[in-house]
Amino acid sequence: MMRNRWKKGKRAAAILLAGFTAFALAGCGSGDSSSDSSAASAGSSAEESSSTATAGSDGGLVTVRQALMTGNLDYYIAVIGKAQGIFEEYGVDLEYTEYAYGINTIDAVVNGTADIGNMANYALVNRFGNTSQDTDLIIFSELSSNSGQNGGLYVSPEYADDLSSLDGSIGFITTVGTVWDFYNSAIFEYLGFDESEQNIISTDSTQTALAVVQNNEAAAWYAYGANAERAEEYGWVLAIPSEELGLTTGAYFVTSQSYNEENTEALAAWLEASQAAYDWINENQEEAAEYMENTTGLDPNDFYSTWESTVCAIGFSQEGVEDLEAMQEWCYANGKYDNEFVVRDFIDTSALELVFPEKVTIE
């Protein structure tokens, strides 16, 4: 399977489709299909669309199907950007479907019901590690990095004064198969705990994890953004800041190699529109928060917390590659999959190089 590798000379190709940009991100779990300006309900379902973006009868817009992770950066960019008409300005008819987690958005790409999804570094590396020999998936851009500076390891109050008492305690919360597995391992290493001796409390979503926190049914949980604020509201205490733990989370956009090859210009337009939508929200945060509150009931403070703790990173940096490579080495060394693989074999920056060549800095 042929993939484009890092090119030191950037491709100077022009996009022939007039101002045509698409933004498709991926979410997890099962959720609402949506293609209108409301985040609460749907227009066209991803399942009803063609698998290939083509110009439609509505003035030449190209349809791009995006799987979104509800409440994540990609969710706000897509929902608010569509409501503001930004995607249409770039020639994109954006259709989106919401999911609970990033990994489920990739399932949507694999089964052909979405064109673009996203995953955090840990989940992405594990997905490729377990399917590297027969997957058609490629990574075509970074999505975000999480500053995490407003979060870290939160503990139930009775553990706050003596973190050694966490060793063998009632347990650490995780959501199985997500980056929380890695967070916990890093925390155990930092605290000097034997991971095999720790109790792991599995949850199926951050909402369930918050319920566990609220009911004081666990000892510790790694949280940031709106989740960190909720943990504090429930009386939990920040024991170790993310900065001290050295934990940040990168997220990446994923599509299929076949879609990438057949729709490079569509992906390029989508990336350009996504960046424009992010920039609009950044400059109009109050209006964006008000829109989300009016259409979905989202507390503006939750929107601000997520927005302030996450940095949009559309492009592909050397640091982003090294983040994935370091995670790949850690996961392989810790037995997450049997076959080691080369991360760079699954990256293709063709679409990025059409619109943001300066943002591709891979050595």
Plain-language structure description:
The protein has 363 residues and is an alpha+beta fold. The chain is built from 14 helices and 12 strands. α1 (73-83) packs across α10 (264-283) and α11 (285-296) packs across α12. The radius of gyration is 20 Å and the shape is globular. Residues 1-58 have low confidence and may be disordered.
What would you say about this model in short?
The chain has 14 helices and 12 strands. With 363 residues, the protein is of the alpha+beta class.
Order of helices and strands: EEHHEHEHEEEHEHEHEHEHHHHEHH
The secondary-structure class comes to alpha+beta
Q: What ranges have pLDDT less than 50 throughout 5 or more consecutive residues?
A: 1-58
Q: Strand tally, please?
A: 12
Helix fraction by DSSP (H/I, runs of at least 4): 25-40%
Shape: globular
**What's the mean pLDDT score?**
84
